[in-house]
Design goal:
single chain; mainly alpha; elongated
């Protein structure tokens, strides 16, 4: 029983390490997002074509 649990943990270990490293790399991107250019609100953009009412 203990051997089976150990095997499952060894199989899941690389995935857990990858998720940890990927989430650690994603944190600096959140800091730089305020520096991104602001988008014009939808109300101020002119409508290029009229959409049909369905």
């Amino acid at each position: 029983m203990l051997k089976k649990v150990f095997i499952v943990l060894m199989i899941l270990l690389p995935s857990a390490v990858y998720i940890y490293l990927a989430s650690k790399d994603a944190e600096p991107a959140k800091e730089s997002s305020p520096a991104a250019p602001k988008q014009v609100p939808v109300q101020e953009q002119p409508q290029k074509y009229q959409t049909p009412d369905h």
